[in-house]
Amino acid sequence: MRYYPVLLDTLNEEKIFGGVVSVRQVVYLLVAGILAVLSFFLPIHIILRIPLSLLFASAGLVLAFFKVSETNIDTMLYYAARYLIRQKKYVLRGDD
Question: Is 96 among the domain residues?
Fold first, then answer.
């Protein structure tokens, strides 16, 4: 049996839906769309409903598509939360 080397690209996401969006992006867009629609039909004043639904929709778009230094925004937010939560060591060193 012949063996062929297969190159694995572990750095980029696999674009599954139409070759344009990945599963992670579809999940963010679906959750943001559902939250935007649900917030639009809340029994509150229209002046509060529209900005709330736009907030959810724009948050979904940002989490799905934006990058900072080739790193996805959701990953950056995860790293920032981990940094803020973790225990920090403060080392005071004198003259050595």
Answer: no
DSSP assignment of 33-51 equals HHHHHHHHTSSS-HHHHHH
8 located within any domain: no
Q: How would you write the pLDDT of the chain (96 residues) with one tens digit per residue?
A: 888 888 777 777 888 888 889 999 999 999 999 999 999 999 999 999 999 999 999 999 999 999 999 899 999 999 999 999 998 888 887 665
Number of domains into which the chain is organized: 1
In a domain, 74, yes or no: yes
Q: Is the pTM of this model over 0.90?
A: no
Contact, 32 vs 61, CB < 8 A?
Answer: yes
In which domain, by residue range, is 47 found?
23-85
